């Protein structure tokens, strides 16, 4: 029974509302569905999702499918797969999207395998190739040095969408849509991996995803002690400190601070990259920042190709006067910061 | 206990920028002269994870590598690090495989060597960055899969894994056999010694073709690659310079203030 | 990319197998005993080991006639110190490039993933610890402990930066020479600084082994560091480093805002300006060994690109004209002048000197991977030194010194080895 669902999105509810990435996918999905004259559906798993469903409809979803069960509050691959596989086989969408998130990365390959379809991970762009509904999926490869364009020969065409690449939909509470409940019976014998504990990283500074200002250190910092100057600058600007991969691998900074292809994708207002070479894997994490400032001794470092402002030189000589002048400016404004 | 590590040979992700070139017709990156291919970095982490389990429990570790034009001296690093056996799967037909096809061939190889208690692999390969193969191998072998592991311990037929989350980590347990994909947090591959490399040279490396795995031809790719290109950057950076570092730094701060960025 | 084997195809095809690459320029032959030029073929006695043979090898690889890269093939390729003697000798007759096809063959093989196991250890050490000695990066500044010298990595400024090189930083026996060099420069009133533990390898061994990717990264990083430090000269003790900085660094297309000098050139300048006073006399008969990288390999080299036209069916004309680098413009006189300025010294010349000097045997990874070959080559040179009655060999490269010292220790000879700086210190 075809429900004429063109685009099905697997959304992620976060603290009682839709995650930013889900809203972005709804925006992109709505465009695709409109161009292909089809319906946009959203699948949510969790518990007590009524308000989230309403929000989804306001963001342009035609059909919201809810799988509500206290057992689904915490993500667990075996349980989620059972429910989602069942739902997708029933709905037969043309296109299936999910976020390139912690959950998406874990779920998408297995789901694609079970559905017997192809999958394009970490997509940064979707274009419609023909009115028949085939989409061209663009994804970065070779550590983001190159872009590959692919298309899937089977249905549903699956893609996981990188956060920050689609434009979020507009909230319109007057939109109408339908909410459907899905059966949530779970075959317990299929659950093999058990979650024993969850540990959140202790952090007293702003999270990287929410920070409006990020100061990032790279391999050129030289040691873990040298990050203290970055912390001082971040505090002054009300921002967070991040690191590219080499400092994390060397143990100077925890991996939760890593910005890049396999770390966090961030889009602050101001991104100050200190002693960061600007490798493509790292730029994948920060390219969407509004303004990038680079400080590096190598005038040909890749970071300068991507930055808006830059100084060529040793950060040890540049940062102290920069911090002093910044402090002067901010104090001159009566201590207020417009970040 | 038998552990299998799937390692992939890739073009060096740390090659200088000027060396990275794409052949648009062949839709592939051109191997640069003077920069040898390497074992994909996350797969090296997977080797380390496997070797730690071997140190603790005395398991047999077998490294599997699938590709075309595999370089023995590069992959022998796994033997030098302490892996017991290296098996190469090389076949002209393995030219244009996608992750699912690679996974099915690797799974067939794992079945041929008698299965595995744990299969380790990197979370994603440094060339295609897809992160699909590990989970697909688990599905082929009908094993549970734990991704982005940063710590692994085995006890009483169960595996206890700490896996990365965006804001910390979670601890999960699963029965053996299972597939684990690792993140670099799990630790760098132990340094190889010259004695290790010398004894690795003497070891016999098995080489299999698809025929040996009773596969006539690899499964066709599920996705078609239409284009591969290096994007052009249009941004122009405003380089702030001054009489000396201090002067430039002050000018930068003033400039950012002008743009209301501070 | 600097090394592309295909670029040298026409040169490789033109090797007529005249075998000049195996001997010094015929007019310079003085005795049968020391009539060889190429350590590789002298020891292994098979044509492929000579310069011309290596050209044939490179050609076969480019034309696809060698598909099976066996271990024996790799042994042949790497049993060569890339000393450039074949290149220099060949150019007495033909105008073929021999040394760069040798480098390019190595780059070609490395790019396909073929190399000796020891090479992967050297390269790993370079990537992780910024040196080829397989020692930790944090220990790099230890040689200068106690020396009161400016440390550029801490932001101090100096006119001249002294680049010690991996061997001087990590070899305890040789580090003393580096310390003496710095003290000598300071005494002469030079505003010298070092980069201490932030110093990184010059990349010359990576380049000579064919790992040009690594080389490019290190070379660019060094140029940036020195540009950023604002030094006007870079003075190095390591001849290998000097050779690569002079001949290959400029090919990267990066602006080098400093002058590259070898310590012997700098000391020669200082002595002639009277800033170094040598008052003690040393009565000794010494001979000077020309390091390959200070001599024939330190010429500025620009790979030729243009059109070739065949005239009258046999003459090759090149548009633009190709400049042939024969090794004549290397650094030969400054070290000799420095030695001669020591009172009481008697400097005698060996038979194979200057651009046709016999290699010490330590270059291009041979010291690390094929120590027996390195020691044999050194013993040949020591025999030559003894044949002219020298009591000591004076050299200007730490690798030469290290290799000679090891060879003397192995054979129990009674000849001494000094670096030019050691000699000067004894004379002060």
Series of H and E elements of chain C: HHHHHHHEEHHEHHEHEHEEEHEHHEHEH
- Name given to the CATH architecture of the domain at 119-272 in chain C: 3-Layer(aba) Sandwich
User: Which strand order spans the largest sheet of chain C, edge to edge or round the barrel?
Assistant: 1-3-2-4-5
Helical content band of chain B: 25-40%
The coarse silhouette of chain C is globular
CATH topology of the largest domain in chain B: Rossmann fold
* Radius of gyration of chain C over all CA atoms, rounded: 21 Å
Largest sheet of chain B: 9 strands, mixed
Structure description:
The complex is a heterotrimer of chains A (339), B (262) and C (428). Chain A is α/β, with parallel strands linked by helices. Chain A folds into two domains: 5-190, HUPs (Rossmann fold, 3-Layer(aba) Sandwich); 213-332, 3-Layer(aba) Sandwich (Rossmann fold). Chain A is built from nine helices and 18 strands. In chain A, strand 9 (135-141) and strand 10 form a beta hairpin. The longest helix of chain A is centred in the last third of the chain and has 18 residues, at 315-332. The radius of gyration of chain A is 22 Å and the shape is elongated. Chain B has 262 residues and is α/β, with parallel strands linked by helices. Chain B folds into two domains: 2-213, HUPs (Rossmann fold, 3-Layer(aba) Sandwich); 232-262, no CATH class. In chain B, 28% of the residues lie in helices and 29% in strands. Chain B contains six helices and 15 strands. Chain B has helices spanning 41-57, 72-81, 99-112, 133-141, 194-202, 245-258, and strands at 2-7, 9-10, 22-23, 28-29, 38-39, 60-67, 85-90, 118-122, 145-155, 158-165, 168-175, 178-182, 206-208, 223-229, 238-239. The longest helix of chain B is centred in the first third of the chain and has 17 residues, at 41-57. The radius of gyration of chain B is 22 Å and the shape is globular. Chain C is an alpha/beta fold and 428 residues long. Helix content of chain C is 41%, strand content 10%. In chain C, helix 3 crosses helix 6 and helix 13 crosses helix 14. Classes of the chains: A alpha/beta (339), B alpha/beta (262), C alpha/beta (428). Chains in contact: A-B, A-C, B-C. At the A-B interface, helix 4, strand 7, strand 9, strand 10 and strand 13 of A face helix 4, strand 9, strand 10, strand 11 and strand 14 of B.
């Amino acid at each position: 029974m075809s429900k004429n669902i063109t685009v099905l999105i697997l959304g992620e509810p976060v603290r009682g509302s839709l995650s930013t990435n889900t809203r972005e996918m709804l925006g992109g999905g709505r465009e695709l569905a409109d161009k292909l004259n089809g319906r946009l559906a959203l699948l949510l798993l969790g518990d007590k999702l009524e308000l989230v469903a309403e929000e989804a409809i306001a963001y342009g979803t035609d059909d919201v499918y809810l799988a509500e069960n206290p057992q689904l509050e915490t993500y667990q691959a075996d349980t989620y797969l059972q429910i989602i596989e069942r739902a997708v086989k029933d709905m037969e969408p043309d296109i299936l999207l999910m976020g390139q998130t912690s959950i998406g990365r874990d779920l998408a390959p297995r789901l694609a395998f079970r559905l017997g379809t192809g999958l394009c991970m970490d997509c940064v762009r979707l274009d419609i190739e023909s009115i028949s509904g085939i989409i061209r999926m663009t994804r970065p490869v070779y550590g983001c040095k190159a872009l590959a364009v692919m298309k899937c020969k089977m249905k549903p065409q699956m893609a996981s969408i990188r956060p920050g690449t689609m434009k979020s939909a507009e909230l319109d509470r007057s939109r109408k849509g339908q909410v459907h409940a899905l059966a949530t019976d779970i075959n317990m014998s299929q659950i093999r991996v058990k979650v024993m504990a969850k540990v959140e990283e202790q952090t007293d500074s702003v999270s990287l995803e929410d920070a409006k200002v990020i100061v990032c250190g790279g391999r050129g910092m030289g040691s873990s002690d040298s990050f203290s100057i970055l912390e001082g600058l971040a505090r002054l600007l009300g921002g967070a400190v991040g690191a590219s991969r080499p400092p994390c691998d060397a143990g100077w900074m925890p991996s939760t601070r890593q910005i890049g292809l396999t770390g966090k994708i961030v889009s602050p207002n101001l991104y100050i990259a200190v002693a960061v070479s600007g490798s493509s894997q790292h730029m994948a994490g920060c390219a969407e920042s509004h303004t990038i400032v680079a400080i590096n001794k190598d005038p040909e470092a890749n970071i300068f190709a991507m930055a808006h402002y830059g100084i060529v030189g040793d950060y040890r000589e540049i940062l102290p006067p920069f911090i002093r002048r910044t402090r002067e400016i901010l104090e001159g404004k009566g201590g207020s910061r417009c970040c | 206990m038998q552990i299998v590590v799937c390692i992939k040979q890739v073009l060096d992700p740390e090659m200088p920028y000027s060396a990275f070139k794409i052949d648009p017709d062949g839709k592939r990156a051109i191997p640069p002269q003077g920069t040898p291919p390497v074992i994909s970095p996350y797969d090296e982490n997977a080797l380390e994870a496997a070797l730690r389990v071997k140190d603790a429990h005395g398991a047999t570790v077998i490294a599997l590598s699938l590709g075309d034009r595999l370089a023995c001296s590069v992959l022998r690093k796994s033997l030098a690090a302490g892996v017991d056996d290296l098996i190469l799967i090389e076949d002209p037909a393995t030219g244009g495989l996608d992750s699912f096809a690679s996974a099915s061939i690797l799974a067939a190889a794992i079945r041929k060597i008698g299965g595995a208690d744990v299969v380790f692999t990197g979370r994603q390969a440094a060339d295609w960055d897809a992160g699909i193969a590990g989970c697909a191998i688990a599905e082929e072998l009908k094993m549970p899969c734990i991704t982005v592991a940063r710590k692994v311990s085995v006890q009483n037929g169960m595996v206890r894994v700490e896996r990365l989350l965006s804001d910390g980590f979670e601890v999960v347990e699963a029965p053996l056999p299972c597939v684990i994909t690792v993140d670099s947090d799990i630790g760098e591959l132990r340094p190889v010694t010259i004695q290790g490399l010398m004894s690795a040279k003497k070891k016999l490396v098995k080489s299999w073709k698809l025929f040996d795995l009773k596969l006539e031809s690899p499964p066709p790719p599920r996705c078609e690659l239409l284009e591969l290109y290096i994007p052009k950057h249009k941004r122009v950076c405003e380089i702030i310079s001054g009489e000396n570092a201090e002067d430039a730094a002050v000018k930068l701060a003033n400039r950012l203030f002008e743009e209301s960025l501070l | 990319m600097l090394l592309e084997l295909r670029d040298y195809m026409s040169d490789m095809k033109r090797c007529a197998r005249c075998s000049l690459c195996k001997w010094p320029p015929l007019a310079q032959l003085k005795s049968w005993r020391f009539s060889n030029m190429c350590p590789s073929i002298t020891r292994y006695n098979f044509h492929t080991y000579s310069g011309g043979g290596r050209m044939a090898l490179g050609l076969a690889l480019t034309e696809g006639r060698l598909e099976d890269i066996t271990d024996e093939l790799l042994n042949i390729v790497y049993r060569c110190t890339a000393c450039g003697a074949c290149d220099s000798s060949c150019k007495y007759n033909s105008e073929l490039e021999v040394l760069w096809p040798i480098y390019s063959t190595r780059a070609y093989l490395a790019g396909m993933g073929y190399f000796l196991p020891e090479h992967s250890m050297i390269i790993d050490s370079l990537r992780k610890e910024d040196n080829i000695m397989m020692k930790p990066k944090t220990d790099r500044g230890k040689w200068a402990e106690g020396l009161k010298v400016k440390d550029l990595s801490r932001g101090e400024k100096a006119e001249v930066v002294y680049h010690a090189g991996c061997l001087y930083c990590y070899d305890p026996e040789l580090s003393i020479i580096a310390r003496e060099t710095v003290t000598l420069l300071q005494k002469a009133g030079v505003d010298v600084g070092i980069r201490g533990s932030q110093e990184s390898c010059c990349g010359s061994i990576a380049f000579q082994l064919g790992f040009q990717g690594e080389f490019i990264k290190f070379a660019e990083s060094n140029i940036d560091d020195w540009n950023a430090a604002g030094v006007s000269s870079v003075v190095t003790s390591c001849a290998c480093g000097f050779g690569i900085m002079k001949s290959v660094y400029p090919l990267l297309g990066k602006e080098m805002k400093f002058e590259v000098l070898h310590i012997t050139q700098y000391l020669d300048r200082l002595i002639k300006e009277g800033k170094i006073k040598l008052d003690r006399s040393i009565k000794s008969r010494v001979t000077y060994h020309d390091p390959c990288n200070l001599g024939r390999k330190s010429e500025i080299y620009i790979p030729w690109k243009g059109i070739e036209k065949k005239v009258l069916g046999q003459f090759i004309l090149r548009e633009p004209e190709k400049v042939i680098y024969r090794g004549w413009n290397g650094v030969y006189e400054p070290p000799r002048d420095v030695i001669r300025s020591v009172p009481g010294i008697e400097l005698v010349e060996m038979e194979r000197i200057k651009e046709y000097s016999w290699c010490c045997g330590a270059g291009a990874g041979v010291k690390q991977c094929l120590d027996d070959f390195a020691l044999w080559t050194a013993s040949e040179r020591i025999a030559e030194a003894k044949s002219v009655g020298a009591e000591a060999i004076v050299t200007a490269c730490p690798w030469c010194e290290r290799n000679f010292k090891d060879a003397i220790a192995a054979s129990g000879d009674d000849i001494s080895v000094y670096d030019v700086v050691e000699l000067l210190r004894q004379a002060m």
